[in-house]
Automatic annotation (TrEMBL):
This is DUF423 domain-containing protein. GO terms for cellular component: plasma membrane. It is a multi-pass membrane protein. Belongs to the UPF0382 family. It comes from Achromobacter arsenitoxydans SY8. Pfam families: DUF423. Keywords: Membrane, Transmembrane, Transmembrane helix.
Length: 125
């Protein structure tokens, strides 16, 4: 994935995350239990953080030129889909078995950040 594509993906994910946060605060507040609303908010928080992470990866990719950063961006996006996506669906449907998917997203986040660290370590000063 190119730096340009990662930047577009980051911007779109930030847009969706902000919308999800607003939807949770205004649209879901009366529909969900406090516990499920907290689950939704956790999904939004991790979505926002890792969408910003996609921007960071795009900027570092332009600077460092490491193919590992491109892969890290893909892995981070997969993490957003699995982690935040599973929490969004769990909140809206009450389907608790989706909670089993969430740790795979968290693992993808950890792997992506490790890939960023490795790419920076390998970069020429």
């Amino acid at each position: 994935m190119t730096d340009r594509q990662l930047t577009i993906l980051a911007a779109l994910n930030l847009m969706v995350a902000v919308g999800a946060g607003a939807f949770g605060a205004h649209g879901l507040k009366r529909m969900l239990t406090p516990e499920l609303l907290a689950v939704w908010q956790t999904g939004v928080m991790y979505h926002l953080i890792h969408a910003l992470g996609l921007f960071i990866i795009a900027l570092l990719g332009a600077r460092l030129g490491s193919p590992l950063l491109s892969a890290a961006g893909v892995v981070m996006f997969v993490g957003i889909v699995l982690f935040s996506g599973s929490l969004y669906v769990l909140s809206l449907t009450g389907t608790h078995w989706l909670g089993a998917v969430t740790p795979f997203g968290g693992t993808a986040f950890l792997a992506a950040w490790a890939m960023v660290a490795l790419a920076a370590y390998r970069a020429q000063p």
